[in-house]
């Protein structure tokens, strides 16, 4: 499609958008609530930060209230006689979760938080030996992932300097080439124990070719696991088919389940009955039928559920369920289709902006190829990026600043409109004078 830079055109795109009404299922922050300074008003912000904290569905409150009511009225009996018996609450999320990451139901479970799960999964899937002990990561991975990997390596008695290998883009390039990743895996060969990278890099927005990376890892006898914090609910995933060994993600970014929300885990079916895999166990992972016999000797449940430790966190899971129901209603393929168009339109407007004035030049470091990105565009301003980020915020654009020099914007297909993109463009023009 040929885009145009007029407001009319943006409005037309919104009119033709069959998902446009989903925006009204979310609370959009207003300028009034976010700005402490200029012209407080009830006008909606341009909320481009759903990659950091997704917006609140209007239904979330009712989902949580349902559980509060059951707790109020039933006390402990809510485990059995609540509307959604808590004993099995996590199972309510399984089917939709499996769909979002392209998994079988046996392969997923919702539990804990992301970094906790990264550790639990590495306990099972990072089993270094004197010969095979290296972990391949993307350079500049999200800090929590860096710390998790570093501490796992040390836990096994290795030095992070020897054991952690980082992928760095070629000189003059901002993102990684798949062939360079697979080549590195080949070169590391039988010294490589694990590939552990973000499915979509939080900084550049690059969506890696998880299938090829997994195949390359397996070819040298290593395992492949991914942090999907920026991928789940954002890009199409086929974890089962791609033969990924394990993955985990959070629910509060693209999955709109509230700050600090619960996390999802994928463990490939091939491990579903592997009782010999070491793991840190807890009673909720124990064979369901025998869980309350309180006996010695851990017998894991089949599949990902066997990695659970604690009984389910009902309130965060209720928030998660509210959002998953919206994803189901919208249909992920529809969302992806809109997302590709929305982000391409935003990209077009930024490129137009560059051509139309000479004061500010914005470089988009996110790959141009749709297959290599999700919603997010990472913008590098030629100068004073941090200052421009502050001005954008004052003018009602909620985006985020990431050191050393990126402004990330994420037009989210569930609740952002083409007019949001246009407003961002108009504000940029205002700033450039
Ligand atoms: C958001 C994010 C995290 C945050 O981890 P929590 O345990 O949820 O605090 C970790 N890793 C990546 C790649 C992220 O994007």
Please characterize this protein's 3D structure.
- It is a single chain.
- By secondary structure, this protein is of the alpha/beta class.
- It folds into 2 domains: 7-47 and 331-432, Alpha-Beta Complex (Aspartate Aminotransferase, domain 1), CATH 3.90.1150; 63-329, Aspartate Aminotransferase, domain 2 (3-Layer(aba) Sandwich).
- 36% of the residues lie in helices and 12% in strands.
- It contains 14 helices and 13 strands.
- It has helices at 7-15, 31-34, 60-74, 78-81, 94-101, 114-125, 143-155, 160-163, 178-188, 210-219, 314-330, 332-356, 385-394, 418-432, and strands at residues 46-47, 108-110, 134-138, 164-167, 192-198, 223-227, 246-250, 263-267, 362-364, 377-381, 397-398, 400-402, 406-409.
- The chain has a 7-stranded mixed beta sheet, sandwiched between helices. A 4-stranded antiparallel beta sheet has the order 9-10-13-12, with helices on one face.
- Strand 12 and strand 13 (406-409) form a beta hairpin.
- The longest helix has 25 residues, at 332-356.
- It is globular and about 70 Å long.
- It starts with 6 loop residues before the first helix and ends with a helix.
- The model has no long low-confidence stretch (mean pLDDT 96).
